[in-house]
Design brief:
Blueprint lengths: L8 H6 L11 H6 L26 H6 L15 H8 L2 H5 L5 H12 L10 H6 L2 H4 L4 H19 L2 H22 L8 H17 L6 H16 L7 H21 L8 H7 L9 H14 L2 H12 L6 H31 L4 E4 L9 E4 L3 H24 L5 H13 L2 H4 L5 H15 L2 H14 L25
Antiparallel strand pairs: 1-2
Helix pairs in contact: 6-9, 9-10, 9-11, 10-11, 11-12, 12-13, 13-16, 15-17, 16-17, 16-18, 17-18, 18-19, 18-21, 19-21, 21-22
Keywords: DNA-binding, Nucleus, Transcription, Transcription regulation
Pfam families: Fungal_trans_2 (PF11951), Zn_clus (PF00172)
Protein name: C6 zinc finger domain protein
């Protein structure tokens, strides 16, 4: 019999030599995810001819009731292709039998394109899920839902897709019960489940444009109810940082105040969890987030002025106050950008790999997190110059808007790569769409159509202008 590797599950899957450090190996830590450990289980399937069997009830899957003829096992080969090729019909009907392997593939795929310098915060959060699986039935149900959706996309398998939708209904029921429970309502597992369902909606919902906003509202409310003191350990702090983009976007679109825009919450979020390999970049990331939490209130103020009586003295006073706030934010953002551009490697020009006619030269970055911060700052500056133009502040704001818009569009080829690409690109591309001329909007819509194949929230028909919709809960 061939010898079996004694390395951890992830190193075996990746086919790399494991250092076998306990309790978790250093290779996984360097890879940017939590080590799944060394425990191996085995699954024996009877050799009788396969016959169609009853699909297990979702509650059986969630509760972890096993088929008496089988014991769970990792798949012997690595990667999504190997996992899929080894899945038997019974496993397809019962995705819970291989949920840990499926989850490992999902985390790996969402981490692409991989980087030696940093890990996207959502990938880092998802890296905690294999260790969390099995300790809470509500969270397990949402994990089943999300991983099954991912597998259905990989395999183009309608049976798994149906299971994913059924698991979604089941997870909603369990989540309602958990949120009504005094013991579970504010737990990290409940918060994790709410966030995971919101992410699921962004990836999967092709019918209801604003359903993710309802989940994002729940994420925002639960995060605030739990209070800053709940986010001091690495898991909960990562959870908050994975959720804050949705919290800010919900505030932006709903017209509600962003509770993260306070010094108390800024202090909590500045706890370092190694998103970058240098402390200086980590600090600059958090400094930008602190500035970004102020964006919703600025956009709300601008929207109010757009709908106000331009001849009213009260409107003039609001315009003056709002202009002062935007000027102050511009000063802060420019100071931040000067620091950031001295530390972060700048993008360089490269010919488009798709021979794009509108943007034949695109921007190439060294790292997706660095690229995300550059693009977010471009979007923020575009909003500020749009505000200056609207408020009548002197300057060549039209040219600045076009510059920042084009910087975002030229970053699409690099930053939209991978399953999380559309998630990273969403806000920036939304702003570019808002300020674009008709020809550029058509170009953006073509990119959105491509991205919506793996990320439903990017459908062109749901892409609403940010400054025209900031008072109503409309999805990007």
């Amino acid at each position: 019999m061939a010898s079996r590797s004694t390395g951890c599950l992830l190193c075996v899957k990746r086919r790399v030599k494991c250092d076998e450090r306990r309790p978790g190996c250093a290779k996984c830590e360097k890879y940017g995810t939590s080590c799944p450990g060394y425990t191996r289980q085995f699954k024996f399937v009877s050799g009788k001819p396969y016959r169609s069997r009853r699909c297990p009830r979702i509650d059986e899957a969630v509760c972890g009731k096993e088929d008496p003829e089988s014991i769970h096992t990792p798949m012997p080969s690595s990667g999504a292709g190997a996992l899929i090729s080894n899945m038997q019909p019974l496993t397809l009907a019962s995705p819970h039998l291989n949920v840990l392997q499926s989850l490992s593939v999902l985390v790996d795929d969402l981490s692409q394109p991989s980087s030696t310098n940093s890990t996207h915060i959502v990938s880092r959060w998802l890296g905690f899920l294999p260790a969390a699986y099995g300790r809470n039935k509500t969270l397990d149900a949402t994990i089943h839902c999300f991983t099954a959706h991912h597998l259905s996309k990989l395999t183009d398998n309608e049976q798994i897709a149906r299971y994913s939708r059924s698991a979604y209904v089941q997870s909603l029921g369990r989540l309602r019960a958990s949120l009504n429970s005094r013991e579970e309502s504010l737990s990290s597992d409940s918060f994790c489940a709410v966030l995971l369902l919101c992410i699921y909606e962004l990836f999967a919902n092709n019918n209801e444009a604003d359903i993710w906003m309802k989940h994002a509202k729940a994420v925002s409310q639960l995060a605030e109810m739990r209070g800053p003191s709940c986010y001091e350990d690495p898991f909960n702090n990562t959870l908050l940082k994975a959720a804050r983009g949705l919290i800010i976007m919900h505030s932006l679109f709903s017209g509600e105040k962003c509770f993260l825009a306070s010094e108390r919450w800024h202090a909590v979020m500045k706890q370092r969890i190694n998103s970058f390999d240098t402390e200086e970049l980590e600090i600059l990331l958090e400094d930008f987030i602190a500035l970004f939490t102020g964006a919703p209130s600025l956009v709300h103020a601008l929207y109010e002025i757009k709908g106000a009586d331009p001849t009213s003295p009260m409107t003039w006073r609001k315009m003056s106050e709002t202009l002062t706030r935007f000027l102050e934010m511009q000063t802060k953002l420019q100071a931040w950008y000067e620091q950031y551009s001295r530390v972060a490697p700048h993008p360089h020009d490269r010919l488009s790999s798709t021979n794009d006619t509108r943007y034949p030269v695109v921007l190439h970055y060294t790292d997706v997190n660095i690229a995300s911060l550059f693009c977010s700052s471009y979007a923020y500056m575009a909003i500020i110059h749009e505000a200056f133009r609207t408020l009548g502040y002197p300057g060549n704001h039209e040219a600045m808007i076009v510059f920042f818009r084009d910087q975002i569009c030229k970053s699409v080829e690099y930053l939209s790569a991978g399953l999380l690409g559309p998630y990273r690109m969403g806000f920036s591309l939304l702003v570019a769409f808002e300020v674009a001329d008709p020809a550029t909007r058509l170009w953006i819509k073509d990119r959105l159509m491509d991205m919506s194949q793996r990320y439903a929230a990017m459908r062109p028909q749901t892409f609403e202008p940010i400054l025209d919709s900031a008072s109503s809960p409309t999805s990007p």
